[in-house]
UniProtKB/TrEMBL annotation:
<dbReference type="Pfam" id="PF04542">
    <property type="entry name" value="Sigma70_r2"/>
</dbReference>
<protein>
    <submittedName>
        <fullName>Sigma-70 family RNA polymerase sigma factor</fullName>
    </submittedName>
</protein>
<dbReference type="InterPro" id="IPR014284">
    <property type="entry name" value="RNA_pol_sigma-70_dom"/>
</dbReference>
<feature type="domain" description="RNA polymerase sigma-70 region 2">
    <location>
        <begin position="14"/>
        <end position="79"/>
    </location>
</feature>
<keyword id="KW-0731">Sigma factor</keyword>
<keyword id="KW-0805">Transcription regulation</keyword>
<dbReference type="InterPro" id="IPR013325">
    <property type="entry name" value="RNA_pol_sigma_r2"/>
</dbReference>
<keyword id="KW-0804">Transcription</keyword>
<dbReference type="GO" id="GO:0016987">
    <property type="term" value="F:sigma factor activity"/>
</dbReference>
<dbReference type="InterPro" id="IPR036388">
    <property type="entry name" value="WH-like_DNA-bd_sf"/>
</dbReference>
<dbReference type="InterPro" id="IPR013324">
    <property type="entry name" value="RNA_pol_sigma_r3/r4-like"/>
</dbReference>
<dbReference type="InterPro" id="IPR007627">
    <property type="entry name" value="RNA_pol_sigma70_r2"/>
</dbReference>
<dbReference type="InterPro" id="IPR039425">
    <property type="entry name" value="RNA_pol_sigma-70-like"/>
</dbReference>
<comment type="similarity">
    <text>Belongs to the sigma-70 factor family. ECF subfamily.</text>
</comment>
<dbReference type="GO" id="GO:0006352">
    <property type="term" value="P:DNA-templated transcription initiation"/>
</dbReference>
Length: 167
């Protein structure tokens, strides 16, 4: 890979790493699992980056790769994954401290979302990130109408989870 391509990847990853952290938060419980998934998503993004054509925004493409990686790994309940060595490379990003205390107020919402299935989690995540239904449907590979219908059903599910007595 050329140095220019590597620098471009590093810049895009730096800019969009919070997307990856949020996906990791949705699909893991615990800091170690979060770090493992973050690393695996970064590796998958790096492997796929030479094929990124720019037909969509980098963030949209990164969502797709990250979600697919998270869903694949945790659907199979695999904790250890094959990785490639990067000893000969410089580290891509500086590790930023991910402050779990700041998300304490979101704990109940995360617990509710965690009870949803994998596709529902992905849809909620993108919805909360203010992605429009076109981008959501493009990323998840479903129609815009299907995304809207699913989101309305998910909202109902979350209301029942968060307020089971309907008070």
């Amino acid at each position: 890979m050329t140095k220019t391509l590597e620098l471009s990847f590093v810049q895009q990853l730096q800019t969009n790493q919070n997307i990856i952290h949020k996906i990791c938060r949705l699909y893991t419980s615990g800091e170690d699992a979060h770090k493992d998934l973050f690393q695996e998503i970064t590796i998958q993004l790096w492997k796929a980056f030479p094929k990124f054509r720019g037909d969509s925004k980098f963030s949209t493409w990164a969502y797709r790769v990250a979600l697919n990686t998270a869903i694949t790994l945790y659907r199979k309940n695999k904790r250890s994954v094959a990785t490639i060595a990067y000893e000969s490379r410089q580290h891509f990003t500086q590790d930023i401290d991910y402050n779990y205390e700041e998300e304490e107020q979101l704990k109940l919402m995360y617990q509710a979302v965690y009870q949803l299935n994998d596709i529902e989690k992905a849809l909620v995540f993108m919805y909360l990130e203010d992605k429009d239904y076109h981008e959501i449907s493009e990323t998840l590979g479903i129609s815009g109408v299907n995304a809207r219908v699913k989101m309305n059903r998910i909202k109902g599910k979350l209301k029942k989870i968060l307020n089971p007595l309907g008070i």
